[in-house]
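Fig. S4 source data, part A: sequence.
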Amino acid sequence: MGYERPKGEVGIRNKIAIISSVVCVNHVAEQIAKKVENSVAITHPLGCGQFGPDFSFTLRTLVGLGNNPNVFGTVVVGLGCENITSKLIGKQIKRKKKPIEYFDVQDVQGGTKGAIEKGIQLGQKMAEEAKELKREPFDFSHLVLGLECGGSDSISGITANPAVGVVSDKVVELGGTSILPEFTEWVGTEHLLMERAKNDRIAEKIKDTINTFLNNTMKIGIDFRGIQPTPGNIAGGLTTIEEKSLGTIAKAGSAQIEGILEYSEKPKAKGLWLMVEPGLDVESMTGLAAAGAQVIVMTTGRGSPCGNPVAPVIKICGNPKTCDWMASNIDIDASKIITADKKVEDVATNLWDKVKRTLNGEQTYAEILGFEDIAIWRCSAAPFQIFQA
């Protein structure tokens, strides 16, 4: 059950997005969102003086968040002197034929106070219009599922992650779309991903993406394979990047890989896609939501509370201690695979049921607790210069 959007998309939430085009007006966006029902403030520390891939990534991400099917309408607030302007963001969102308003604080009489009042007025009008929409039934071909992991441990790769893989395959089988980010955690498993590529060109792109990144880190005197896994991963029992990567790609099941997306890029067709993103939890989920994911499933062995303001985040954990210690953060307990002789498929069934309930309006723990985290990946550092502007 979802909300019909223009261009044939379907939302599972009906939010009003208040987006700041630049860091200078974050406070304005936050104050507007406090007074507009069912709205979320999408703020960030960027938007000024950016160029090249960083400019493209920030712009595409902010536009993508406003265009996410879970968003009914968007108010974009700018300052007026930045290069990623409210007008630039607003005009691109407008192509989706969704409600959109944009303005700059410098153009509003009264400065900050006047801008907040104007934004509240625009947002409240949208919120009233959003209430008129009713949920309708849609098939799963409209679903875009984001796949994420954070705080992985040695248990994740044999419990929660493969259970997510079963669900990912089910979404693809039903005609939907699934996206696996975290390309730095494909290292050591490239050959397995290449075998699943739709064609030789995509297989070569998978290999080239990893090789270019590893070579670029070497050029600045860093062997990436020596800094992964992270200290938290090691404390959780992981010993090599290959172990971590095997767990990461397990979330993508066994479906054919249709292609590779740049950060926050929308898939060009249905099926399983890979996204180039360096395995940073909040940046990753921001990119997935900007790419159109209506819901994200995040596996976490050591525990993670983070969420997303646009897409609900379902947490699944296979570590019995974490499931007990952080029970208020974990939606699905996958630890029964090792403590109660449950099969991966049993946990996958429970997860699939939770996904369906979330699609139909049930809140996740991250939503209930109010986690609305946003961070936009910056790729200007030398190792990540594997893109064209």
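Fig. S4 source data, part B ends here. The longest helix spans residues 111-131.
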